[in-house]
Every structure is written in structure tokens, then in C-alpha cells.
């Protein structure tokens, strides 16, 4: 399916941003985040998100570049139903390192991190959603895609999918997204890591 980020819709638009059909550059605002309740006890729906409407059975992917150096600096893909049901996955800086981070939220947030590779200032992330199953993968080169998460996700008539960046502890993170695409859900075997 054709997507054009110039026609996408913002949730919490930053002051500084520029979109092309398949890319986005932005500078984050301070105190931006998506989170619901777990551990910290607060709810935040203030992160930057530029998304398009899609139906079930899609794979979305994007290349992410940035200098993630402060606590909770983050950027990647988001799939959103509403403020209570969403997923964000990408890079996040925590405990002094960059990790691949996934937060799945259905009322409350569930956070996991992993490091299948450490080169996380320039990487690819993709999310496939089909028939209530979400498959999240990342790649350092766009060719080999290790699995980050396989999880259930609610089945609804449509979803919002797109690019997200947040800086809960500061502002001023420059993030570049490129090669954004949304197409039919990939059908490769779960253990086939090729593109």
C-alpha cells in the first residue's frame, strides 16, 4: 500500500520537523513520552507520533538514525489503536547503553529490552500485524532480522502506524527516519531471519 508521510497525521507535533514521502527529521520536545502506569505509577501520552491509517495484515518498516545518549532517549515505530492500546518499538537509551526496546500497552505498559546487536545509532525496525499476532524484528543492515517480540495484539477494524520519538528526561534529540514503508504482512517463517 502506498503511504505518504506528507499526508500523515500528528499526535503531539514537535516544533521542528520536516517530512518527505518516506522520511522524517525531527527534534524532540522536552518531557515527551508514551507510558501507562506500570512501575512508575504515571500515564503519559505526550510523545511525538506521525502516523497513517492501515487495516489488519500489514508490515511496516523504517530506518532510524540518531545520537541516543540520555536516559530514555527513544525512537522507532508505533502501532496505535487509542491511548490505552498501543505498541512502540525501537532504540531506547537506558542503564548507560542503547537497547532495542518494546513497550506493549493494553491498559498498562509492558516493557522489554534486548541487544541482538549494539550498533543502534543507525538501524532498521519492522512490525508485522496479522490476525491478532504482532511480530517485531530489527536489523542492523536491512537484510538479517532477528525477532524482538512475538505477542498478541487486539484485532480492530483499523490501526494507526508510523514513527515515534520521545525524550522523557530532556528535549533536543535529533532523529532521522527514512525508507518508511507499509505493505502486505510478510509471510516468511518465524525463524527465517532473511528479509
UniProtKB/TrEMBL annotation:
Gene3D superfamilies: 2.60.120.200
Family annotation (SUPFAM superfamilies): Concanavalin A-like lectins/glucanases (SSF49899)
UniProt superkingdom: Bacteria
InterPro entries: ConA-like_dom_sf, DUF1349, UCP022704
One Pfam assignment: DUF1349
Protein name: DUF1349 domain-containing protein
